[in-house]
Amino acid sequence: MSLVQKRSVTIRGHRTSYSLEKPFYDDLVTIAAERGMPISALVAEIDSTRPREANLSSALRLHVLDWAKRGALQVSS
């Protein structure tokens, strides 16, 4: 079984895909649930704020990393 799974999503009427390792995808699901939104909406939001030269998969990983760092900072405060 592959460590990276490819997923498809429609963003602003355009079908696209991203590839993520399961732990990153699981954290995206958690973030979306915490915010009360579908994962597709979260992916679309992240896509709309990423620099155009940035890869969507990388932008999603960086979003999860930022979320995890903020959580770690709250715990240590």
TrEMBL record:
Keyword Lipid metabolism attributed: no
A Pfam short name: RHH_4
Keywords for this protein: Transferase
Protein name: Aryl-sulfate sulfotransferase
GO molecular function: transferase activity
Top-rank taxon: Bacteria
Origin organism lineage: Bacteria, Pseudomonadati, Pseudomonadota, Alphaproteobacteria, Hyphomicrobiales
Domain Ribbon-helix-helix: from-to ranges: 5-67
